[in-house]
Design goal:
The chain is of the alpha/beta class. It has twelve helices and 15 strands. It is globular, with a radius of gyration of 21 Å. The N terminus is likely disordered.
Length: 405
């Protein structure tokens, strides 16, 4: 076990009361949570919100934080950055929230982040993967606990480094995440396989359902591997149209996080076998006190028959706020930001540490290969392995070089 210095605050999930149960008549700590609760990103945003709600219920039933309950104020940004920007302003100025959190869309997160910076309000994001959030557009009031596009692109290359594949085709939904992740993949695969090449790429508009043209181009190019940065609905449409052409007879990597159990269940028998996928969480895999507690709390609170992967991040972000506030013994922005630096806590996904230089979390993701299970009626991930984030993240020196001064 690594020994952390005294300046590192180590906390445990299981069985910890943040404060004696004084009763929760005190003024609430308001958290403005802005998510995609409708549209193409709703399959990510809805379970994230449910996970957050489960955590808030658990925290409040344990006496709250510093004797004060958490209050979630929810907004649906509908994947529109202008809407997210307006909602962040309203939450701060009208609803008087103490902190902001969410979200799903990269563009929306960047819009919220600019508002947080303007008003000097802490924004903890747990779902967005663009490096710009904590790097090129980073600032002291943003904290991110999701892996980013640096990790995603490099992890794909890392997963494929020992194969004979040399020719790659990239297809993705035309948004910031996919283009950035593709760029990091290109850099890393060239480093690992100097003779490799990107033989083509396509970028589809969000909500696209017609893929005849790109499928024809891929068939002609005959890549060794197809890498998809299509969102769930777009990937579903692409897969249905591409399978008859034999495109899934060769390796296919499908991200972002198509391997979530909630998405695989939604695909049912229509999800192709042999797809390399990443996922934020796999219920029942870790079997730790923190994961078992979270899964039981989620199932008991929601009455659901399974635990969605994104729910874990919603749950973790609420507890991160709680632990940082408890450590700070205050709810002032600067105090909580200082408390986040170097904070370490056990989560359902393993040990989370917030890096001091950029308030970036260190949790990685699980990668596996899809296989349909007839007894379940949907695909699961096999040959699962965890790829840590720490060695695939930009270093603090690299972050400092691109962050605004």
């Amino acid at each position: 076990m690594r020994k952390w210095g005294r300046n590192i605050f180590v906390v445990l999930f299981a069985g910890v009361l943040l404060t004696p149960a004084f009763g929760l008549s005190a003024e609430p700590i308001k958290l403005g949570i802005i998510l995609a609760l409708s549209g193409s990103s709703a399959p990510y945003g809805v379970p994230l919100l449910k996970g957050a709600e489960v955590a808030v219920k658990e925290i409040n039933s344990s006496g709250g934080v510093l004797g004060r309950p958490f209050e979630l104020i929810v907004r649906d940004h509908k994947n529109a950055a202008a809407v997210a920007n307006r909602q962040a302003e309203e939450l701060i100025l009208k609803d008087k929230v103490n902190f902001l959190t969410g979200t799903i869309s990269s563009a929306c997160a960047l819009a919220i982040s600019e508002v947080a910076k303007k008003h000097k309000v802490l924004f903890i994001d747990c779902g967005v993967r663009t490096t710009a959030l904590t790097e090129e557009m980073g600032h002291p009031y943003i904290c991110g606990i999701s892996v980013d596009t640096t990790y995603e692109g490099r992890a794909i290359a890392f997963f494929d480094k020992d194969t004979p594949n040399k020719k790659y085709w990239i297809i993705g939904s035309d948004f910031d995440y996919g283009r950035r992740a593709a760029g990091f993949f290109k850099e890393k695969i060239k480093e690992l396989k100097p003779h490799s090449e990107i033989v083509g790429q396509n970028w589809a508009k969000l909500g696209e359902t017609e893929f005849t043209a790109p499928i024809g181009a891929i068939v002609i190019a005959k890549p060794d591997m197809l890498i998809s940065f299509l969102l769930a609905s777009e990937f579903h449409a692409f897969a249905r149209q591409a399978i008859p052409y034999g495109l899934f007879k060769k390796p296919v990597v499908s991200v972002p996080i198509i391997g979530q159990i909630e998405l695989l269940k939604a695909f049912g028998k229509d999800f192709p076998d042999g797809v390399i996928c990443s996922t934020k969480y796999i219920p029942g895999l870790l079997n730790t006190p923190a994961s078992n507690r979270f899964e039981k709390k989620y199932l008991d609170s929601t009455g659901a028959d399974f635990v969605p992967a994104f729910a874990a991040d919603g749950y973790i972000e609420m507890w991160l706020f709680a632990k940082a506030i408890e450590k700070a013994r205050a709810t002032t922005t600067e105090s909580v930001i200082n408390a986040l630096k170097g904070l370490t806590m056990e989560t359902p996904k393993g040990t989370l540490t917030i890096r001091e230089c950029d308030l970036k979390g260190n949790l990685g993701e699980w990668w596996g290969i899809s296989k349909y299970e007839a007894n379940l009626g949907y695909s699961v991930l096999t040959n699962v392995k965890y790829i840590p984030a720490t060695d695939l993240m930009h270093t603090c020196k690299e972050v400092a070089a691109v962050r605004p001064k």
